[in-house]
Amino acid sequence: MATFAVSRAISRYPRPGLACALAFALAGCSFGPNGEPPAMPQPAHYGAQAQPTQTAPAQGVTQQFVVGAKPVPEWWKLYQSDTLNALVDEGLHNSPTLAATDKSLAAAREQLRAQIGSSLLPTIDAGGQATRNRALAIPEIGPNTFLYNVFVGQLQAHYTFDLFGAARLANAGLAARVNVQAYQFDAARRALAANIVTAAITSAALHAQIETTERLVTIANDQARDTQRRYALGALSHADQLSAQQSAASLSASLPGLKQQWLTTRHALAVLLGRTPDAAPDDLELARLHLPEQVPVVVPSELLRSRPDIQAADAAVKAAAADVGVATAQMFPSLSLSASMGQGGFSWPAALSGAGAIWSIGASLSQPLFHGGALLAQRRAAQDTYDATISQYKQTVLAAFQNVADTLAALEHDAQALDAANLAARSAQGIFEETSGRYRLGALPVASTRSSEQQFRNAQLDEIRYTSARLTDTAALFQAMGNPPVDAAASTAAALSTSSANAGTSN
To answer: What is the pTM (predicted TM-score) of this model?
Structure first.
């Protein structure tokens, strides 16, 4: 259909208007895909099982899943910890990684501004030249050589007409890539906040586990010494003595690993904040962190707009579509105009006089005829790249759906496990308190007290782990929901306008 339209258009115009007719006829033709991402399935619910409306109650808190709610921008403030809020703010302001990403984005926007200015506007340059020349003698005239000066000053202008949209499509492709970086910056900012929250909670949980484990080690060592004395008195077998010694040693061996994890987490948190590892912040208290009771569950159609990784994949599709158009437009004619005007002569007075005026004007038209199949190969490569970005977009969306499904399931299971661990800890604490009371009355030996406290401390360890998992998985869900949609194209346009105003020059 496009070929027929072009032939009809050509037949209506005389030869001098052939190029114009061809340009107008092809103006409505698409040189590449439209850049719209493929339609994705909209599941009724994210996981293999429909998510419940709320989690099981644990430690007196039931989390509600608010389906259709909007993402929460500063979700970490829902933990109601001023210390945690201060850590996140510090990291967002001082992180070298985030600052580097921001500057890379600013550089990309400036490169886009430079390309738009150089491709869509004419270039005007001023030049001057002063030379002294020596010419060889001409025998017919005389034996002497000639010495002379040349003075030239001129303005030169050049402009290439974007007849088939090659420059416009190239600019659109670069603008889409700038948008990719803008969304990646947003994703990096959100990931930094989530990593700070997760590291702070994990460090606090490890600190609590270390304190509880140290108490378990103390109890095990006391039990081992008591068993050693009873073995020496012949009240216990050698196997009982070795078993108590082995239990104490095993607990002691687990402590260095916990301390290593704790220090590694603290060091990582310090670097996330832009500090050196020796300046790691003090640990939070798990008991002071408020678990958000309502968490948003963005519907799948809205998730496509709220997740920066999906938005970045969408922008990559648009950039690849523009590249296909550029590769197609390069197979069509190119028209350029050039002009210059100035003064010149063999002396300054002559160059500055009316007789020294010089000027030129010209046009250049080129049409690729034979490039060894390179242009067609480049177009096929651009089309294959576009198809690849379509597949990458689909995979990004599917991975986002999986991420949400996993975190929703994790929160439900965290609540169930924490509820059971909390019940076990409260029961073990009750047994320990009763056993301690009977020991003080002389009704039970000290070994019974130690045994009941060991059970209580072990149950306490499980409760700490599941409390930490529930807090960090809640942060993961907020992160998975994305951010309220940001128009990266508008942000890029605003940034370009600001940079143009600040530049104050057309250079």
So the answer is: 0.84
